[in-house]
Amino acid sequence: MFKKLGRNDECWCGSGIKYKKCHEVFDDKLAKLEREGHIIPSHDIIKTPKQIEKIKESCKINIAVLDYIAENIKAGMTTEEIDRMVYEKTTEMGGIPAPLDYEGYPKSVCVSINDIVCHGIPSEEEVIQDGDIVNVDCSTIYNGYFSDSSRMFCIGNVDPEMKKLVDVTKECVEKGLEQVKPWGFLGDMGQAVNDHAKANGFSVVREIGGHGVGLEFHEEPFVSYVTRKGTEMVMAPGMIFTIEPMINMGKADVYVDDEDDWTVFTADGSPSAQWEIMVLVTEDGYEVLCY
Ligand code: MF3
Ligand code: CO
What we know:
Blueprint: H1 24-35, H2 49-72, H3 79-92, E1 96-97, E2 110-113, E3 116-118, E4 133-142, E5 145-154, H4 160-177, H5 186-199, E6 203-204, E7 210-212, E8 219-223, E9 240-243, E10 246-248, E11 254-256, E12 264-266, E13 272-274, E14 277-281, E15 286-290
Antiparallel strand pairs: 1-4, 2-4, 3-12, 4-5, 6-10, 7-8, 9-14, 10-13, 11-12, 14-15
Helix pairs in contact: 2-3, 4-5
The protein binds 2-amino-4-trifluoromethylsulfanyl-butyric acid and cobalt (II) ion.
Residues 99, 102, 105, 110, 119, 137, 139, 148, 244, 276 line the site of 2-amino-4-trifluoromethylsulfanyl-butyric acid (MF3).
């Protein structure tokens, strides 16, 4: 529960407006939902309009970097070259690649090919091949604000079932997005993602998911795609989180490489796909900030 402000006090959000004219109704709604047993967001993950503007500037760079990769990625290239392109484009635009030195991560981007689920570390040794499905996951810090999104790239002649995995994963994100609305639940979104993956015979990774983002790289809440409608955190206007399901062609089980402690593989060696967007909950629905 929140500390109750006086109605004539300045609102906690920094708007400079009196509480009664700003977030009082918002807080009352959340307090009611909490009494009903729901998980509610804390104030520190509710972004102000000013913060949202800043976060959007960071997103602009992240989108441009991924557009640049889309134009240039091709068979024969090493993943190290992708890393170099991400570093150069991001810094040229005044940003910092968020992964670099993040909890010891050694590169500027994650590049995850075929049975790598996520957190693939770029390397001089790893060459992108015809037929590969490749996830490029970019994150940017700009003036202290964070953005994060990823896309899949199908290189040359891709096996039809793998192409289907890539397409269905993108559809999963879109189905999830349709469920994003103020005073709904993250589980509404999670179930929509899960149902679509299952309906197509695929499985959803349980251990890794999305997250709040904007003021930090990874904020509350953890966003799972193995959840049920009507459960998980309430979606309130001003929240920003990622929708980034990892969908496997085979079993859902994954493991982390014990040599590098980062790279996540499917346990059965089957291919995995992921798309990631950043979404803002608005007063009447959502806005996609980064893709
Ligand atoms: N970009 C990833 C995400 O979507 C996080 C990668 S962490 C890193 O949350 F250190 F590996 F870059
Ligand atoms: Co993310």
